[in-house]
């Protein structure tokens, strides 16, 4: 059968059409398999799953000791959420509010949490510029600040193994010049 026959041209077009359809299906299936499940990734700017309040929850927070050289634990009740990013933000905002009784705040005054989300085993905490500009301590105070954040997160989220500190959406090189915060902080290094 030669290409000049009337039916050959039609069969060739049909074969090309079927081949294009098959390639399209393969591409769609492979792309859809690469996406992580929605419940594993929470990023700012994306609508979060329907939030269901589930009562209150006791959380463990770490504040500075009276002399500012170590951490003290405090337990507080907060409104619980079934959405990890919302719960993470609530816990960190409680830490920013300062201790209920004993201890001192480790976070510079005026610091706000812009957003919090979880991706894989890493918690991302985006703070306002005051975290850096309001910091006025040395290496011990910077250690206490970072340790209070990392320990608070890890104590309440056992599946999180890293915490990335962001300032205005950017991974800051350091908060006070003594510790590298450009990469996620391993919770095992801050225990």
Could you characterize what this model shows?
This protein is α+β, with helices and mostly antiparallel strands and 191 residues long. The protein has one domain (53-190). The protein is 34% helix and 24% strand. It is built from 4 helices and 7 strands; from the N terminus they run H-E-E-H-E-E-H-H-E-E-E. It has helices spanning 6-34, 84-97, 130-133, 139-156; strands spanning 53-64, 71-81, 113-119, 122-127, 162-167, 170-171, 185-186. The strands form 2 sheets. Strands 3, 4, 5, 6 and 7 form a 5-stranded mixed beta sheet that branches. Strand 5 (162-167) and strand 6 (170-171) form a beta hairpin. It is elongated and about 95 Å long.
Low confidence ranges: 34-53
Q: Biggest β-sheet: count, sense, barrel?
A: 5 strands, mixed
N-to-C CA distance? 77 Å
Tell me the series of helices and strands, N- to C-terminal. HEEHEEHHEEE
Query: Any idea what the radius of gyration is?
Result: 25 Å
Indicate the structural class: alpha+beta
Mean residue pLDDT:
83
Query: How many separate domains?
Result: 1
Number of strands: 7
Tell me the β content. 15-25%
What can be said about this structure in brief?
This protein is α+β, with helices and mostly antiparallel strands and 191 residues long.
């Amino acid at each position: 059968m030669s290409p000049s026959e009337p039916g050959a041209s039609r069969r060739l077009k049909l074969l090309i059409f079927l081949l294009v359809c098959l390639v399209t299906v393969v591409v769609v299936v492979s792309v859809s398999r690469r996406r992580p499940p929605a419940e594993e990734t929470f990023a700012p700017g994306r609508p979060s799953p329907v939030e269901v309040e589930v009562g209150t929850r006791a959380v463990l927070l770490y504040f500075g000791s009276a002399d500012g050289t170590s951490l003290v634990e405090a337990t507080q009740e907060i409104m619980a959420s079934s959405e990890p990013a919302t719960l993470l933000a609530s816990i960190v905002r409680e830490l920013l509010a300062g201790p209920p009784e004993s201890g001192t705040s480790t976070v510079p005054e005026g610091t706000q949490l812009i957003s919090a989300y979880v991706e894989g085993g890493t918690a991302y905490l985006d703070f306002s510029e005051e975290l850096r500009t309001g910091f006025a301590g040395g290496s011990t105070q910077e250690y206490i600040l970072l340790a209070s954040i990392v320990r608070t997160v890890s104590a309440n989220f056992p599946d999180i193994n890293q915490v990335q500190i962001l300032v205005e959406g950017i991974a800051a090189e350091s908060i006070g010049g003594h510790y590298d915060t450009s990469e996620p902080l391993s919770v095992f290094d801050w225990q």
